[in-house]
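ok trying this again, last paste got cut off
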Amino acid sequence: MIVGAPSEIKESEYRVGIVPAGVHALVQAGHSALVQAGAGVGSGIRDEDYAEAGADIISGPEEIFSRADMIVKVKEPQPCEWPMLRPRQILFTYFHFAADLALTRAMLDCRATCIAYETIQLPDGSLPLLMPMSEVAGRMAVHEGAKYLERPMLGRGILLAGVPGVAPANVVIIGGGLVGSNAAKMAAGLGANVVILDVDLNRLRHLDDIMPPNVTTLMSNPYNIREAVQRADLLIGAVLIRGARAPKLVTAEMVHTMKPGAVIVDVAIDQGGCIETCRPTTHQDPTYLVDGVVHYCVTNMPGAVPGTSTYALTNATQRYMVRLARGLPAALTNDPILQTGVNIAGGKIVLKEVAEATGLPLSELSEVMDGEI
């Protein structure tokens, strides 16, 4: 199989979908790799590194999209890339279809096989290709929140840790999964008072066992969320429902009760956001104010630290990429884990959560596999 890795063109996206180790693994398995010239620069990877691993360096994206059987990316195809996609071509990347109807329709029209990093699921329910970026985003959420709490950034002008004689900041985290737990570790390590809310009592018990004393766990319900949000200096949205839109757990009315200069970081914004007043922003224009509250809602937070996040991501994706390179539908037939990643195939939606979020028809993957991929 020919596997292609074009440069990422989403604004301020510096990651890349494959590293030289991935190229080497593909070549060793008898496949070919095409990498766009300069694709790895943002992550500190030279074209020469890819070439030494066995890749062909291609000057532009058009040739990669036209020749490659599988496209490996980090972010969803951008509108200018849609016309280059082909029926039955495999796209392996983050998609977040539930929050993007236009992208969903475009992928249905091109009839490519869309395998989403964020929905590949292991038997224990974990999401191995979402984990590394959740870890990065959770830790970054505290970094960014601390920065935007500074007064020049229109924040409250407070230090997360406080100092002797001055109380630390109150950090509220909604969601106790990977994003939330990583954010809690960072905020607690800096000395903040941390409250983390989740609907799963067993998860709360686990967090209570592993977190330091300055982290308090609370059951997530409208009453507790309302009370916690009102006290928050930094509010972090960390809710995830696999493949689906994030529920709006914090209402505009709740945001209105927050302190002037408080900061919101909604990590769930890729899936539509869990805070009603949040809308997608970019690294170039990351924040806006609602009721005097600073909102940071960048949809590709880990893209700002590609030297870490590219390697963290590809450490997880490489094994699945090599398995997919064996070809479809054989790879899917023999690998139920890979099946969980298929969102769209043959011009049809095959993941229930995407169909429900977009209001479009759902098809069975088994039916599509019979002749469409």
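PB: full thing came through this time. The mean pLDDT is 96.
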